[in-house]
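Consider one such protein record:
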Amino acid sequence: MLQVAEPPEPRSDQVLVKTVATSICGTDYHIWTWDAWSRSRVTPPRIMGHEFAGHVIAVGPEVTHTRVGDYVSGESHWVCGKCAQCRAGTKRMLAILDRTDIATRGPDDPQAWFLFAEASRLMYADRNQYVADPAFVAVPVAGLLDPGYVQARAALIGGRAGPPPAAGTPPGFARGRDATEERAGTSHFVVVDAAGNVVSMTTSVESLFGSGRAVGGFFLNNQLTDFSFRPTENGLPSPTRSRPASGRDRPCRR
């Protein structure tokens, strides 16, 4: 059951966005079909959705870089430092951006987007190397957020984009190389016509058009790109390896 609620008044440090376009990922499809996966993880009532774009219709008095009428996009992997996810420590990308001058730039500044993209690449390289299921492998959260390590990663942002960055080595921690083979070429676009019809398309659902199979208008994810079938590299374990558990291979990736 869907319930429509009145938009809340933004707090002093918040903005209110009227959504005009959204994207769909595999999690959204699970919830739409309300399958066993959703029933075991989602407790209604819950506001869903984590990729959207829209117009700012109200701002709090403490907001300085956003104005009413701005067209903005939202992505829940971008963090604020105040919400539950940030307080839990998932703030690697923001920590890198804190070492740049992005706070002095606005949404129309190309350099701000460049810094955002480069910090994303650095964050993803570490995420791909070290983030796995903490029930089976150690995730070096403290090392990834170590101020000296974050500063060293931020210093890799140059004046121009370079090759994809390699993962770093957090203090006191080492891992073997992730042998996962991932195809390049992420592309996403959203088209909205005058009648309000919206088409949202992503070609890279973990790989080029996912598994290559479509069901009900959705390309199925090729999540196998999140696993490495090479358990060690130079004697060090891979965080994304498959490992035996209860007589079968159990992947360590989330």
In short: The CA atoms of residues 24 and 200 lie 7 Å apart.
